[in-house]
Amino acid sequence: MRTILAFGNPVYDEIRTPRVATPGRVLSGCSTNACLALSRLGHQAELVGRVGADFQLQFVTDMERFGVRAWMEPASQTGGFRLIYDQRGDRTLDVLGLADPITHVPSAITEADLIVIGPILQETPLGLWQAIRAQTHAPIFLDPQGMLRRIAADGRIEHYVPADFAEVASWCRVIKANEVEAHVLTGIDPRRDVAAAARALRALGCTIAIVTLAEAGSFIDDGQRQLLIPAYPTDARDPTGAGDTYMAGFIHAYLENPDDLYRAGCMGAAVASLWIEDTGPEVALPLAEVLRRWEWLVARRRDEASG
Q1: Is 149 helix (H, G, I), strand (E, B) or coil?
Q2: Taking the model in full, what pTM does it have?
Q3: Contact 5, 116 (CB under 8 A)
């Protein structure tokens, strides 16, 4: 069992897809979903963030129920979005609540084997990054989604690149971006040239760049290898958290064998495929099924190579 410390505010979201709708607001968030998945994969997952009094009691109950240790500062309110997906899978985000930036780095960081930074909306400022860097040599894995979001004049989320992104990118072992985020960061559309987008993402300073492409799979570039990872064919009911749990699966396999990035990518795809078949934090991740899907994906590469 490894210890993963994740920085990012939890959120309570309303989610509507063409097939499901949550009954009110449910626990979610980039780092939160990664912790939920990592805990179910057998790791000690610990979450650092801020939560308001409006959801404090529910959050404590949820963390106890899901086996995640939480290091929370109080916030003026709990973060959250209303996510509405169309038939294509595109979504709009309306802000329901905005928690304050994280300022606390727990002493537990010295025991962490790996750090995840996965903000949801501007809660990981440069000062926090500097404090993390000063207190640990553990590898940092970044999901940049919340760093690239800001609230537009109409109250909805728009994307941009913060001025300090290149600095923090150079501190990361891995940056995992979806196709929208990769496009924002590099100016290259991954659907047109994913290899170029991943190469440009890695050129920002990280060691390993990952670009996820939903049903088209994912692409990994470490400067020596460029790997196209297939997606596991699945019946997606709610894509929320797919990238977050891909990161969890990737980390799970990477910690076992950091040299086999293909297998790590396949583990990410396997975990994400299970997550999107349901909605909300109750999603089951039975290890036997995770491993079956992982082995199926890995075998595809062998089959293609032999064919």
Answers
A1: strand
A2: 0.96
A3: yes
